[in-house]
């Protein structure tokens, strides 16, 4: 489960956690690779964090 939450709102983090638990309880059986719903959720969250970091770095560079 992802731990990094830079740039993620409380509402997104709560919704993500709920989706993760729901997939665990009611989702498909554990799949390998790209078909695994938990891995897909982790990739989605990592992409959002990476985008938030990129935007923050751009703001810091333009502010100097």
What does this structure look like?
The protein is an all-alpha fold and 64 residues long. It has one domain. Helix content is 67%, strand content 0%. It is built from two helices and no strands. The longest helix is centred in the C-terminal third of the chain and has 26 residues, at 37-62. It is elongated, with a radius of gyration of 15 Å. Residues 36-64 have a biased composition (Basic and acidic residues). Residues 29-64 are annotated as: Disordered.
Produce a short descriptive summary:
By secondary structure, the protein is mainly alpha-helical. The chain is 67% helix and 0% strand.
Q: Please, how many helices?
A: 2
The arrangement of helices and strands along the chain is: HH
Work out the number of β strands: 0
Principal-axes shape call: elongated
- Calculate the terminal CA-CA distance, rounded to whole Å: 36 Å
Mean pLDDT: 85
Biggest sheet layout: none
Low-confidence stretches: none
Q: What is the count of distinct domains?
A: 1
From the helix content, strand content and strand pairing, which structural class follows? mainly alpha
Helix content: 55-70%
Rg calc: 15 Å
Query: What share of the residues does DSSP label as strand, in percent?
Result: under 5%
């Amino acid at each position: 489960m992802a731990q990094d939450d830079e740039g993620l709102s409380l509402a997104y983090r709560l919704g993500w956690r709920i989706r993760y638990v729901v997939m665990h309880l009611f989702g498909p059986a554990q799949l390998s690779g790209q078909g695994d719903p938990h891995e897909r959720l982790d990739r989605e969250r990592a992409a959002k964090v990476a985008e938030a970091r990129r935007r923050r770095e751009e703001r810091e560079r333009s502010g100097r």
